[in-house]
Amino acid sequence: MTQRTQTVSGDFDLTMDELRVVARYVVRHAEDVLPVFEQAVPDDPCPRAAIGIAWDFINGANRTRAQRVASADAHRAARSAPSEAARLAARSAGDAASAAYLHPIAQAGQVGHILRACAGAAYIGELEAGGDPAIGYALLERSRRRATPVLIDVLCRYPPATGGSSRVARLMTALDQSLRRTADRPRGRTAPSGTEVCTKECTS
Q1: Looking only at Cα atoms, what is the longest distance across the chain?
Q2: For residue 18, what are the CA distances in angstroms to 43, 51, 169?
Q3: Smallest Cα–Cα separation from 122: which of 155, 89, 96?
Q4: pTM of the model
Q5: For every one of its 204 residues, what pLDDT tens digit does the chain have, with 9 covering 90 and above?
Q6: E-strand stretches of the chain
Q7: Contact call for residues 92 and 117 (beta carbons, < 8 A)
Q8: Which terminus of the chain is more exposed, N or C, with fewer CB under 10 A?
Q9: Distance CA 42, CA 35 (A)
């Protein structure tokens, strides 16, 4: 018996399988930095719970109110965290839970739901290294390499990230541009690394 593919329609279609690819990409970055939050706020389970809810969806659970609630709880935890790094880590967990609800609307703001956690993880790495931007560049390169063709295809359905003045916004824009160049490059040619893109664009 063939299972019908579920889709979410808007300006374009997104399948549940594609949303699970996006959620997996986001949650891997959220997991990387979760210890930063838990070391700062060991008695708040909300970001970890949000990551668990994200994995439930990735592994086949339906989209339900649970993802929205878990995401809101993690973002609430972020507001009371004592450091910028801990706040970013909790927000990344919230983004992982809400990735199931990425909207198929051709707006640049939707890119944040795909890449903000990656940029946040890169900036956390910088902060943990005393503000060393080279660490952020290296972590963006890791994020670029983690991106699957399906993830990049979904990303390219949206307009490019519009940038911003914060470090996280600049890192996200650089990663967005790098991934789009990966999609556009001719076969057989190597895409510019995240480090190369960031060195040029994040410091301009």
Answers
A1: 56
A2: 34, 18, 24
A3: 89
A4: 0.88
A5: 334 467 888 889 999 999 999 999 999 999 999 999 999 999 999 999 999 999 999 999 999 999 999 999 999 999 999 999 999 999 999 999 999 999 999 999 999 999 999 999 999 999 999 999 999 999 999 999 999 999 999 999 999 998 789 999 999 999 999 999 988 755 433 334 444 444 444 444
A6: 7-9, 13-15
A7: yes
A8: N
A9: 9
